[in-house]
Amino acid sequence: LGSFSGAMAQSNVDQGADGMLESDLKTAAHLGRRVAETALRYARG
Questions:
Q1: Nearest to residue 28, comparing CAs of 45, 7, 44?
Q2: What number of other Cβ atoms are within 10 A of residue 20's Cβ?
Q3: Which residues does 10 contact at the CB level (< 8 Å), separation at least 6?
Q4: Alpha carbon 20 to chain centroid distance?
Q5: Do the beta carbons of residue 33 and residue 9 sit within 8 Å?
Q6: How far apart are CA 41 and CA 27, in angstroms?
């Protein structure tokens, strides 16, 4: 599994939300915050 163009994820579809690691949730929140901040910067010009 490899990626050279950006964020990438793999999930175990047989696990529910309770099966997610806390560290993965924190990483997703951090990435989402960065994407939102960047989008806001571009929207403001």
A1: 7
A2: 13
A3: 1
A4: 13
A5: no
A6: 21
Residue at 35: amino acid letter:
V
**pTM of structure:** 0.65
Q: Residue 27 half-sphere exposure, CB side, CA atoms within 13 Å?
A: 8
Helical segments of the chain, H only? 22-44
pLDDT by position in tens, the chain (length 45)? 566 777 777 778 788 878 888 888 898 899 999 999 999 999 998
Length, in residues, of the chain = 45
Contact status, residue 12 vs residue 19, Cβ threshold 8 Å:
yes
- Give first-to-last CA distance, the chain, whole Å: 37
